[in-house]
Amino acid sequence: MAATTRRRDGHLARERMLEEAMTAIAEDGLAGLTMSALAKRLGTSGGHILYYFGSKDRLLLEVLGWSESALTEERRALLAGRAGAERKLRQFVELYLPRGPRDPRWTLWIELWARTASNEPLRQAQAEIDRGWQEDLESLLAKGVRQGRFAEGLDTAARASELLALLDGLSTRVVLGQRGADRASALRMALSATERLVERG
Questions:
Q1: pLDDT category, 95, cuts 50, 70, 90?
Q2: Do 46 and 133 reside in the same domain of the chain?
Q3: What is the pTM of this model?
Q4: Going by C-beta distance under 8 Å and a sequence separation of 6 or more, which residues neighbour residue 200?
Q5: Could you tell me if 4 and 98 lie in one domain?
Q6: Which structural domain range is residue 68 located in?
Q7: At 1, which CATH number?
Q8: What pLDDT is stored for residue 11 in this prediction?
Q9: For residue 196, is pLDDT > 80?
Q10: What is the spatial distance between Cα 124 and Cα 112, in angstroms, rounded to a whole number?
């Protein structure tokens, strides 16, 4: 029983650290997230944070994975819903795009993209997350084709890759706060492009 309690407490402690790290990113940006700053927010020591994560890169990756797991649940619920294929595709796009310039998940993505060239475990973890979005979008498009809502013979893998690349570009512009790039305009452009990518002849 004691061992079970320790494992449960450890899991809760880890979850609390990840949640607080995401909050810190939203409030202060990624540059302000250090092991010592996170420890101070949690009322613990930097060594305690290092015990769980080992390095800032690992912490960032764990925070991203934790955030993405919640999005995966939302995405799977969306795909399992009763809405039509067009409505589901719109919901998928809405879920993918950042909420605004201070979106912590997207701030993390941009930071970690810059680190993947020299960090193979990080590259593999990001590829796994990307694969989940790609496969679910392919599945959504394929269902729309079967239902006659999207173009017959649509190359679902290629269209999904194109759409995700577009969404990445629009999302980056929103997060970086570029002129004229906000969530509403990004959503309009994404939906317009999406319609052209899947439309029937």
A1: very high
A2: no
A3: 0.84
A4: 148, 150, 151, 152
A5: no
A6: 56-198
A7: 1.10.10.60
A8: 54
A9: yes
A10: 12
Residue 159 shares a structural domain with residue 70: yes
Residues 96 and 180 in one domain: yes
pLDDT tens digits along 50-81? 888 888 888 888 888 898 898 999 999 999 99
Q: Kindly state the average pLDDT of the residues 173-187.
A: 90
Render pLDDT for 13-44 as a digit per residue (tens, 0 to 9). 888 899 999 888 888 877 888 888 899 998 88
Half-sphere exposure of 58 (CA within 13 A, CB side): 9
48 and 85 together in one domain: no
